[in-house]
Amino acid sequence: MTSLLLVFQVAEDVNFAANGITAEAIKAFDGVLQSNITLKTLNLSGNNIGDEGICYLF
Predict the structure, then answer these.
(1) What is the model's pLDDT at position 5?
(2) How would residue 43 be classed by pLDDT, with cut points 50, 70 and 90?
């Protein structure tokens, strides 16, 4: 998944809804998310990221 996010480094809207993403996956691509200054929306609905995954996003 991290390699896929590298393609989206300049994306404004990314939809990863219901893709089986977990907190560990969020942690793995956290650096890519932080380096994307153009990202406006990231849809992670329907994934089991829990409170731990949310913490990795901020």
Answers:
(1) 57
(2) very high
C-alpha dihedral, 49 to 20 to 31 to 4, nearest 10°:
-160
Q: Are 29 and 5 in contact (CB under 8 A)?
A: yes
Can you say whether the dihedral through the CA atoms of 20, 22, 27, 30 is positive or negative?
positive
Q: Residue 3's CB: how many other CB atoms inside 10 A?
A: 8
Per-domain boundaries in the chain:
2-57
Helices and strands counted in the chain (H then E) = 4, 2
pLDDT confidence of residue 21: 94
